[in-house]
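pasting input
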Amino acid sequence: MHHAYKKTYYPVYYLIPILLIFTVFYLSPALLGLLYSLTDASIKTSGIRFVGLENYRLLFSDGGAFFVSIWNQFKFAILDALGKTAIGLLLALLLNRKFRGNHFLRAMIYVPIMFGTIMIAIIFNYILSYDGFLNNLLSGIGLSALTRDWLGSFELAMYSVIAVDIWVGVGWSMLLILAALQSVQKELIECAEIDGATPLARFFHITLPSIAGTLNLSFLLSIISGLKAFDIIYAMTRGGPGHATEVMSTFLVKSMSAGSIGYPAAISVLQFIVITTAAMIISYFSNRRESAS
Amino acid sequence: MNSAIRKSGAIAAASALMLALAACGSNNNEGASASSEATASATASALASATASSEPTAKPDPVTVSYIAAASQLNYGGIKDLIAKWEAQTGNKVDIQAIQDDQYDNLVKAKLSGGGDIDIFFGAYAKYDVPNQLLEISGEPFESRLNDIALASMKYADGKIYGFPSPMALSSWGAFYNKKVFADLGLTPPKTLDELNQTLEKIKTADKTPIYFAAKDGWTMLQHRNGVNGVIGGEDPTIWDKLNNNQIGWKDIPGFLEQYKQVEEWSKKGYLNKDLLTATYEKQQQMLVKGDAAIIFQGAFVVPELLKIDPAAEIGFFPLPNTDGSQTIALTGATQVYIAKNSKHAEASKDLLRFLSDQAQVQSYLEISPGVSAFKDVDVSDKMPESLKEIQNIVNSGKLSRHGDEAYIVPLPYDDMVAAYSELLAGKITAEEFVKKNDDMFRKNAKIAKIPGF
């Protein structure tokens, strides 16, 4: 039996509510931000004057601190995504095997993502402080040579914050990968076993190719999350020591201390451009991979 | 159809922009509170006996005055009891709002900017649009009772006064040291930089931390900076005017660079605590009181905290040494308390602040939280601990300079300053680089704050 399909056109004014919401809550603030970035608006003084690109010039003459924050943001995002995906894969491989306590371990690994970020930051500030739990533990087991000022060291602070963020988010990556592992065809594995393939060969030639798409997804989503990272960094180090853990958002928050509106607006416009560009590049590669597979 | 979508989108966007701009422009409502002034104007009369204000003509309806204070301020001097006393006398109420210290400035600025309900608040002239946001109160009786530095600090650039003095003690900055550690090592307080360096070396040799910095919270670390400003202000009393007029920059002040070369050396020679970037204010106090550390750079407000840890602690004070040993310290003006220009209860607010700054209340406050008084008719020297007496002696000797944050009109780029200090203390940058960063960050902030001449 043949069904005749007919295209139905709905009236354009159906779009008005969503257009209004989009305009008021998304478009207008973005446009206002762009406009403010070209003015000397301030919460301290009345009157707004057009200053052209002066706020952008000040930003670029800021001793490179803004560029450091961009570099740190990407460094955080990439290392964070690599850590979450790699450790998530190892944990998923472990928990894909049947053993007593398997489900309990899965829950334990996933639990940190349900804690409040500020609470986690406060706890890890205590654990990682110079006379905190970690250093006391290291000293207690005779490894005092390894004690460090984990959050106060210019060299280590970024890695300490990344490690905490991986601990928080690895459960999500693990679950994603675990689901993919459970959908790998058992018959393929069994055939390979019969053919005498070693566990490593089975992993690299069957399992890994089968879950590559999920690993890719976990990595890209973690990168996007890392490019937006702010709360855990601000709560743990406020971007310090110096600018060692400064990312774009912490730089933006600090720029507000002088009471200016125009200068922070210029930073947020550039932040928008940087993140949008990065997201477009990620999206391009992601789409290309999907169409190839 | 596409054209219709584009048109409706454009109209919506334009409407939203107009609404937003109209909202932004609605802050300039000078004098909006004039009508409410009359209601509260007679409130002052109820306090006539305590404050020598004019006699009442009619008892007004009670009003509620909002009093926005940093949380830490409310712990001192029995201020809440004094406010309660005023409430009992007038029948008015005070809505005390305790704001977390590090959020205080932003919250007050936001309330002022948004036309929020705000009567009394604290701060410094550099933080506000003074003529448009603060109520002018020139001609109040406290003017004749303030010492010279305190009175000078109360006057804005136009010569008018826009704030009442708080009863809080004046603060000063320098080196607080453990007298027992010094005595055990046969040391005396150094006056020159050479003497200081010899002292530090001897302390280090004795296996104690010569100087303990606490940089977990940036503000505790920056108290050293306040001491440095006391030194350079003492070396050249015109320095703040020159900086304010942009005649010179920070890199043109030799004494400033000299002080930070010392910090660079302290870092290189291991005179500083290893955990300085994560050490807390509380730990700094404990280390000094216990004698594990010999010196900390702090404000006079640290003394009550040290004595809370050990009332018998022997703590002394010396000004930050300089090349010629001139030993000047910066003294704050009185802490300023403002009334919002658009306050609905301006007269009642004035009345409360008159009450809190009269002789009896200031005396009561300083007896509970002793320190250097801003008022000539109040002296609590006999109740001060030893280190504060040493500060009082320097004040009496007149070796004073104005507090940099009050005399310098460019807003402090706090976070940039914390970052630069951390880098210097950790040995990541040299003193010359620090001074250049300092110069750059203040110039940038001056431009952002639209200060003429920058």
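fyi Chain B has 21 helices and eleven strands.
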